[in-house]
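Q: Start with the shorter request: fold the first protein.
A: Done. Sequence, then structure:
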Amino acid sequence: MVIYNPMKYQLLIQLFILISISTLSCKKAQVNDVLPEVKLNVSSPFSMQIGSVVSIRPELSQQSESLAYSWSVNGINHSDQLNFDYEPQQTGVFSISLEIKNQAGQSSTTNLKLVVLKNNTFKVMGYLPSWKNANPSVVKWDALTHLCFAFLKVNADGSLNDTEVSGQLQSIVNEGHKNGVAVLISVGGGGTANFSDCLLNESSRKNLTANLVKFAATYEVDGLDIDYEEFEGSSTGASTQDLIKRMALENLYSDLRKSLPADKLLTAAVSPSWQNPNWGYYNCYTNSMVQYLDFVGLMIYDQSGTWNTSPFAQHSDYQAHFIPSINHWLTNRQAPKNKILAGVPFYGYKFKDTNGGLAEAISYRDILSQYPNNQVELKDSIVLIFYNGKETIQEKANYIKNSNLGGIMIWEITQDDDDTSKSLLTAIKQILGEGN
């Protein structure tokens, strides 16, 4: 016989309630002690221009009032809120960290690499060829806003041949970013043979797009510069095959624009093709292609000296070549002013005689070296050589500035002279550099 004891029964109920509350509290504490997974709304590394604000909005797998947040930039605390807005005060590379702590004292850290680039009014883009094996520490980074490392080669199936660039690229990217300069990889170049086969096959072109996007992410470059130079040209401004190629090239631009992260640049080096509709490469580019590009670099050079019947003449004249090319891309190609980078040469052509014909390329540096006492930096020609001296480069830079174009493009920076009083890059900086 069981005797009912009300007090004992009430004690058992109270004990059960206490155990239940304790169990629930433990479960709640366990939930609070779990560190959430963190997903940032920006990629790492993330590139931005000085003067902009990066807004970081973490997405947590679970949230709790017991979690504590701490944002730091290069080890210095900046905020204890979950969301973080940061406006860098200088260019360079920054390490941003979010530390999350729970009540148990456990913590997790999520890191973001931030690259802050120059935001000058005018872009100064210089090409650096891989075959020059230039030490990135000797590049005049202070005079540049963008650097294109050339060239990444394309195979017919859309795979990449990075043999010439892979060994040097990372150190160039690192040095460029330390100096606030955007570093792009230039794809293609003169003398290529497989680019067209790749573009004309849709499967290969899609493969190329995927490989280029992956390459850009792997090497942390700030963008892709497409230098397609496999047009044939003709007496009607474009061959029948060229018309097919130009649409395939625009399709590549479109594919890349859709696939690249928003902070990556997409640019193109193009023939000036200014002469008239019945010559050369005039119709090898479409007006609609510019919508996919951040800017286009007009290769306004090699207008003489590169073929057997070339006249004995300047290859990058201010009046005859420079201005007509810019006007063509503004008027006939309807490119926005701020997307045009007008190209200038840091080299000349040395003819065999005054009859013209195929000439030998010679760097501005070597011209000065061969004629040390002739003040060749103030001229555009000497003996059998045509080139651009300081005064012509300054005239072109002033035209860019006064016309509010996007900036200037240079082939190529290793051909400049080290003497700042004669340097073409220094002359450009004095006109188009920030504060001018």
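Q: Next, the second protein, separately.
A: Sequence, then structure:
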Amino acid sequence: MEPIPEQHTGNQTDIRQTLDASTPRQAHSNFVEASRRLLDVNNWHDLAGTPSASFQLTDKNGMKLDRLAKVGDYIRIDIPGPGLATGHGYDWVIVESVEDKPNPGSDHEYLVMNVRPAPSPVNDETDVAHFFDDRATSSFMVERKDLQVSASEHGRNEHPNTHVDRATDKIRNALVAGAATSGVSGIQWNLLMKGILKDL
């Protein structure tokens, strides 16, 4: 299985930051801590700083979780500006996969978490509660190659989510998706990737 989904249609983004270590032991230690930070979704806002979105890990019923992300969890996203009525004011994604391949004795190890836009878990509406539709994925990855550790975000197949019932949500999604594909989301993820590697 390829850790990053293939790009077929729509927009694609790739954001990457790197950090070099002086010894294999330090490089692996950096990888382990960066991986923990990546899965610690509730602290993403603190890592990225203002003016980033806020993130909350929840279970399948929308109840807050205070732990590292796992497959099947939801992430509630509070983007600055107007929220989604469909999502009770929030955008939502589901954690589809977490692939963790630590290998301290080798020259390569990685962890990748793939998420996809999803309906809100706090109501019965079936519309996807996100400014992208559910063809899109975001892959968050920490990788070590030799002495270098990288943190990256890879957006694939990003299309504005205009297949919703509410006209206000349709307009909002088109505007937010347009801003995201024009570079705003790149700023968000660049700040987060820097935060994941900061002070290691």
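Q: Describe the second briefly.
A: Residues 71 and 132 are 20 Å apart (CA to CA). Strands lie at 11-20, 54-58, 74-78, 91-101, 108-117, 137-145, 148-158.
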